[in-house]
Structure formats: C-alpha cells, structure tokens
Design brief:
single chain, alpha+beta, GMP Synthetase, Chain A, domain 3, 3-stranded mixed beta sheet, about 55% helix
C-alpha cells in the first residue's frame, strides 16, 4: 500500500510521462502507448511504469525497445518538470492485464450466450 505522498508523485509522473511520450518522442518504433499505472518505491528512487500497446506482439516488442531507448530522455524531462529531491529511475513494464481482461470478458460473453439459448 502506497502512502499519499507516493500516490501523488505517481500520478504526477504518469501525467508527465504520458504528455512527453505523446508530444516529444518521435521514435518510429513507438506504437500507441497508454500508461496504465505507476508504482514508486517508498524511498522514491525507482518508479515502475506499466503500459499497454495497441497491436500485435511485434508492435509490443518494438515499443518496448523504443521506451527503453528513450528512458534517459524521459527521466531528464521528468526531472525538469517535477521538482523532487531525487528523480526516480524509470523501469517500463508491459501491462498484460488489459489483454487478460478482454479474454475473460469474451469467455463470459460466450457463456452468457450459451445460457440464453
């Protein structure tokens, strides 16, 4: 459970990174990225950034490479936009929960259709 301070910083980081990815990253490998969640270590040294990407596995891999390549730039931008004593080290993680939720919804829909017949 994160405290109020880390939750505030997590939301600020999510907003800042979303805006920077949308407007400043011009990497052709970058797919349509949505940041889903940010977790910050209690000492504010590390931030896990969870994201999803529209597209197949090839797009997901190329986007992961583009995010990793632009990590330093995004970290510098974050340091200039959010005044923190320590700028957290960014770690990008693919969030597969959206895909899993879609699979579960499809299964539930199929079960519902079978029961209504």
């Amino acid at each position: 459970m994160q405290g109020k301070r880390t939750e505030r910083y997590a939301e600020l980081i999510k907003q800042s990174l979303s805006q920077n990815i949308l407007t400043k990253i011009r990497d052709p490998r970058m797919g349509f990225v949505t940041l889903t969640h940010v977790e910050i270590a209690p000492d504010l040294k590390y931030a896990k950034i969870y994201y999803t990407v529209m597209g197949d596995e090839k797009v997901q891999k190329s986007t992961a490479a583009a995010l990793e390549h632009s990590r330093g730039f995004l970290q510098r931008e974050l340091a200039s936009e959010i005044k923190m004593r320590i700028t957290p080290i960014l770690q990008f993680h693919f969030d597969n929960s959206v895909g899993e939720n879609m699979k579960i919804e499809a299964i539930l829909k199929k079960i519902h259709e079978e029961r209504s017949e």
